[in-house]
Design a protein that fits this description.
- It is a single chain.
- The protein has one domain.
- The chain is built from two helices and no strands.
- The protein has helices at 8-27, 33-59.
- The termini are close together.
- The chain crosses the membrane at residues 7-26, 32-52.
Length: 60
């Protein structure tokens, strides 16, 4: 599987970003906007991985 179809590195990067956003929001931001945006990006990546990976694998 090539790097373009491997979502593991992107998922790990978003998990690290989510932890950093949680720590930042706990200290500085009372509304948690960074945490919500990082969680939304993580959900988008998981949806892309879930729905598009079988299509890529069938086309190969």
């Amino acid at each position: 599987m090539s790097l373009a179809l491997n979502f593991d590195w992107l998922t790990n990067l978003l998990a690290i970003l989510f932890v950093v956003a949680c720590l930042y929001d706990a200290r500085y931001d009372e509304y948690g906007t960074l945490t919500l945006s990082a969680a939304a990006m993580g959900l988008v990546v998981m949806a892309i991985e879930l729905f598009l990976r079988p299509a890529f694998e069938m086309s190969l």
